[in-house]
Structures are given as C-alpha cells and as structure tokens.
Design a protein that fits this description.
Helix content: 40-55%
CATH topology of the largest domain: MetI-like fold
Number of domains: 3
Distance between the termini: 50 Å
Radius of gyration: 31 Å
Strand order of the largest sheet: 6-7-8-3-9-10-12-11
Structural class: alpha/beta
Shape: elongated
Number of helices: 23
Strand content: 5-15%
C-alpha cells in the first residue's frame, strides 16, 4: 500500500510538472527529437547518401537547404539522418555511466569495510582527476571507433555518478529500516533492490537525465576529433568536422550540426528540470487538481464556522523515513489577529510544526493531519496561501539571494502571486521597504543583501512577507544573532505590522523573554508534542508542566544575582524516533512516576485558557515560590 501511494503521488507530480512551461517544452522537444530519429533515416536516407558530382560544395538553395558537401550530398538530410546514430550512441554511453555509477555507488554499503573504503577512495581520486583528460585517456585506451567512444564517454561519467550515489546511499544505509533488514538476514542484492535504490532513485534519475546532455557533447567532441564515429557512418560531431573548413564560405553547413548538439543537449537539461519538479525538489506554481485534493480548497465544515479560528490543526504529524516522528500529533488553534508563541528546546519540533502549517516541510518529510485549516481552507490545496501567509526565517541571508538586488527579489513576489506588472511590483517593493522603516527605500531597493546590515536584512525579509496581504505571519527565530538593540527594533516592527495589518503572529523562539514581550499565548513543545498551552500572563506564575517551569527558571533577569546558579534540565531532549511509550519528558523529570513512563498524557484543561499534558502537574499556588522578574517586567517564579 505505501508503494502504491508513492507511485500514485509520483504520477500526479509528474503530470503536474508536465503541465508547466518547462515540462511542456521538455515533452515537445523529446517528441520532436524522437520523431526525427525514427523517421529521418526512412524519409531522407537516400537523399543523404546520394552522390551528385554536379553539385559539389554548393551553398544553400531551394534544392539543398544547407548546401552540399564535397561529394554533392545534401547536408541538411545528413544532419537529420545522423540524429538516430547520435542519440543511440549517447544513450548507450549513458547506460554504461549510470550502471557503473550505481554499482560503485552502492558497493561500499554492502561489501566489507576495507573493500568499501578502497572503492570510496578510488572514486574520490577519479572525481578529482580533470574530466577532459580522463575522457581522452580512456579514448586512447579503447581506441578509435564508435564502440571505443561509447565505453570511453560512459566510463568517464561513472566517477561523478558514483560519488553522488555514495553520498545518497550513506544517508539511507544508516536508517533503522536498513539495520532491521540486515538483522533479519536480507541478502545483499535484495537489500540494494528493496531498500537502497528505491530511496535514492529520484535524485539519481535527475542527475542522469541532466548528465546525458553532457555525454552528447562529449561524444560529439570525440567524433569531431576523429576518435569517435568513423566513415561510412557519421554523427553530428563528424559532420561538424567535415564542414568546419567551410565555415567562412557556407557557415550554415558548419553550424547546423553544432546547433543540433546544443538544442538536443538543452532538451536533456529540460527533461532533468521537469523530473526535478516531479521529484518534489522544485516547486511548481500550477496547482494539481488531480493529486487527491480538490481544485477548489474545501471550506471548513465546522458548525461554528463563523467563530472558527484562523488556523486549526488537529493531530498534526510530520514523519521522516525510518520511523522518525518529528511532530507526533499536535493540535492547536490560532485566532485572527492573535499572537502565539511556540517555545521549546532545539529539536522539539517547533519549526517543523510551523512549516507543516504552511505546507513547506522539506522532502522527504511527510505531513499528515486529521484536520488542517487556514482561514477555512486546506493550505495544502489553496493557491492563495502564497499571499495570505508570510514566513520570516531565522537567517535572512538564506532567504535573500546575494546575487540579486533586494527590490527585485521583493518584486518577484508580487509578479508571481499577485500578477502585478514589473513596474507595479517594483513600486510595491519600494513601498514595503519603507513600511518596515528602511531609510531611503528607493536607493536601498537597488542594493544587494550584502550592502545591508543584519537588522536591515531581517526587515527586508519581513517586507517580503508584506508584499501580499498576510493574515498570518510565521516568524521562526527572527531575532537570533542580532544584538539587543536591533532585536528590540525587530520585535517592535513585528508589533507594528500586526497592529497595521491585523495579521496573526506565530512566533517561534527559545527565548521566553521575547515571547512574553510580543505574544498573548504560549505553546510549549517537547519531543514533538505540545506539553502546555497557556496565556503569557500565566507563564510566569501559573506554569503547571515541570518542563515549562524549568524553562522559566533558566531565564536570567536584570534582577538575578550574578552568583545565582540558573536552573538546568538534566539529560538531553529525545531525537525523533527515540520517544518511548510514556511522557517524553519523563526521563528528565525529577517528579516522574511509573505512570509517566508507561502512558502519554493528553493535553487537558487546567483552567481558563490553560491546558497541560502532565499526569502530575505542578500546583503553582501550592509551591509558593518567591516572585522574580524577567526582562518584560512580569513577575515569575522559578
């Protein structure tokens, strides 16, 4: 069943990719080249072979479109007829290269350690060797002719293909399901076919498709040098060699074979790009109405739809291959205009939960949810998501292309999602830069990200999110690596943006002081679960989960005695897939009991607007600890 689902998903993604401009162009190019290769020799074979001593070395004419060669043969017909042999030899060389690369690539994962290291080192040496010299060396060894050229070009492709497969296989070979297969005694061949190759198939196919264009050029180059196809056979490289000395007399005759090589190489490259879209590594702008989701996103069917929150998620899960559950079934609501903080240690699932809400979880992660609604629609099917949801990431340099001007990058959002003209989009980009208080926005729009300070780059990313009309802003650690003054400016800016636009805010942070300053409600995550949901006002004195109280106790304040030892949490957070049957925090909790290790507590109500997932929640009133103050002036109890 999983394999059937994967095949269906791939088929839908491939169909969607073929409906994009790149996909349509690639499919058209493939069909055209295939038709020429199949029917060209049948229709024009006699004309290409006919010797006419009365028409030797003529220029282009109605009878001979590209002229004739030194024996009076029609050059245009010979270029068309040469398509079949050129493609056949190119694809044979690609088969040699792909097959050898796969063999050497997966070998280190299934053979002994010493032999595996030897194979890896050998591939590394060959990859470091200049490719052109390696190709000429192989061509010398295998000799002149089509067969030798096929092996020379194919084997020259083996090292880069093998290196790619080795890297991909190494990431898969350490997975739990591969280890389980080894323990169960699965043979090497079956291990490769069932567990390794299916999980590296997509990137391997993409690389092979794009590398085939390079093989075409390399093969034509060998024929041009006289090391490939030999008379009476001929391919595009040989034809280019024949007509090169006439390039100044009849340039069309010399350039036609070269143009055929370039255009066919571009077709192979476009095929690779289309496969990349189908493989999920490029994002297609066209929605897929046939991917098991309705073309028009369904409206929330809750009976209280008028009062439904802006964001509603029920049993939201993010899973990676190998049984790694990064988010383990969380439920959350975000009201319109509400500011919600999402806090927890690194690896707790904060960022992946936010990415799942925006349908941006990277491949090969899988998002499942009982209910997932954004403004009453499924964000995985609603094309409006690009204009109504804004993401502000942790590192602005990862969001901004350093080679492009900032204004151009912002304008692209309006062109793609809003259908604005280039002039309209640039005007809006300048306006948005001014809205986030970047001085001289017209001049700054013409600058590149490297000319911005760290704080200005973060403002530019926020401006990018404001190019549409966002109803929700997801800010993932937006103040990390900024000094205190700039951090405060960014937080003030987010507050102003909320006030001006009425957008809701989901702020992801590990800094409770930042969350307490900006947000109205806090969700505390641990081990892929929400362990507490409470108002910010109750975070300080009313936290009921031991983990939340430990986070509060670890926050230093202006009033903290320099000699005071901050609270620490023993142990480390669980990795995805490590969580046991009980509460994920139980191994680190000093108050854990037997039930905590055996059963996972549900997130249940603990008061107005307060929910906690703990079998034995802390009674903050009973604790009676002395109050303390954190940076926003609120009182706290460690």
């Amino acid at each position: 069943m999983p394999h059937q689902d994967q095949d269906t998903s791939l088929r839908h993604r491939l169909g969607r990719a073929l409906r994009t401009p790149i996909g349509v162009t690639a499919l058209t190019g493939c069909l055209l080249v295939a038709l020429v290769a199949v029917f060209g020799p049948v229709l024009l074979g006699d004309q290409a072979a006919r010797v006419d001593t009365d028409a030797i070395n003529q220029g282009g004419s109605a009878a001979h479109l590209l002229g004739t060669d030194q024996l009076g043969r029609d050059i245009a017909a010979r270029v068309v007829v040469a398509t079949r042999l050129t493609l056949r030899l190119t694809l044979l060389a690609a088969v040699v290269g792909v097959g050898g690369g796969l063999l050497l690539g997966v070998a280190p994962a299934v053979v002994g350690r010493r032999l595996g290291r030897l194979i890896t080192a050998t591939v590394g040496v060959l990859v470091a060797f200049p490719g052109l010299l390696f190709l000429l060396f192989l061509a010398t060894i295998f000799g002149v002719g089509s067969t030798g050229a096929v092996f020379a070009v194919g084997l020259a492709m083996v090292p880069p293909m093998a290196r790619l497969v080795q890297n991909l296989t190494a990431s898969v070979a350490g997975s739990d399901y591969v280890a389980a297969a080894r323990i169960l005694g699965v043979g090497r061949f079956r291990l490769v076919v069932r567990h390794l190759l299916p999980n590296i198939a997509e990137p391997s196919v993409l690389f092979a498709a794009q590398a085939t264009g390079g093989i075409l050029v390399a093969f034509s180059g060998l024929s041009f040098l006289g090391l490939g196809v030999q008379p009476p056979e001929y391919d595009w490289g040989w034809l280019l060699n024949e007509q090169l000395n006439r390039i100044y007399v009849n340039p069309a005759a010399a350039l036609a074979p070269g143009a055929a090589v370039v255009l066919t190489g571009l077709v192979f490259g476009l095929v690779g790009e289309a496969l990349a879209q189908a493989g999920g590594r490029r994002t297609s702008q066209a929605p897929d109405p046939a991917a098991g989701r309705p073309a028009t996103a369904p409206v929330d069917t809750d009976p209280d739809n008028d009062d439904a929150p802006l964001v509603r998620a029920r049993d939201l899960r993010v899973t990676f291959p190998g049984g790694r559950h990064a988010v383990r079934g969380i439920s959350l609501d975000i009201g319109a205009g509400e500011a919600v903080g999402l806090v927890g240690e690194s690896g707790s699932g904060k960022s992946l939960s936010a990415l799942a809400l925006a349908d941006l979880v990277p491949h090969p992660g899988r998002v499942d949810a009982g209910t997932l609604r954004f403004d009453g629609h499924d964000p995985r099917a609603d094309p409006r998501l690009g204009t109504e949801l804004s993401m502000v990431f942790q590192d602005p340099m990862a969001s901004l292309n350093p080679a492009l001007r900032v204004g151009r990058q912002l304008a692209e959002v309006a062109e793609v999602h809003l259908g604005a003209s280039r002039a309209q989009a640039m005007a809006r980009a300048t306006d948005r830069l001014g809205a986030v208080r970047i001085p001289s926005p017209e001049r700054r729009a013409r600058q590149r990200p490297r000319e911005y300070s760290g704080g200005m780059r973060q403002r530019a990313v926020i401006a990018m999110g404001l190019m549409g009309e966002p109803k929700l802003i997801i800010a993932d650690e937006p103040t990390t690596a900024l000094d205190v003054a700039v951090q405060q400016q960014v937080l003030d800016l987010l507050a102003e943006v909320r006030a001006d636009s009425g957008a809701a805010l989901l702020l992801i942070s590990h800094d409770l002081a930042v969350v307490a300053q900006v947000c109205e409600r806090v969700l505390v995550m641990y081990g892929g679960l929400v362990v507490e949901d409470l108002p910010v006002a109750g975070l300080i004195r009313g936290a009921a989960h031991p983990y939340t109280r430990a986070l509060v106790g670890a926050v230093p304040t202006m009033a903290t005695d320099p000699g005071t030892e901050l609270a620490t949490i023993p142990g480390r957070p669980p990795e995805p897939g490590e969580a046991g049957p009980g509460c994920p925090f139980a191994p680190r909790c000093t108050g854990a009991r037997d039930r905590c290790h055996d059963e996972v507590p549900d997130l249940t109500s603990s008061g107005p607007g307060h929910r906690v997932a703990c079998w034995y929640p802390v009674d903050a009133v009973a604790v009676g600890a002395p109050a303390r103050t954190i940076s926003n002036g609120a009182e706290a109890t460690p």
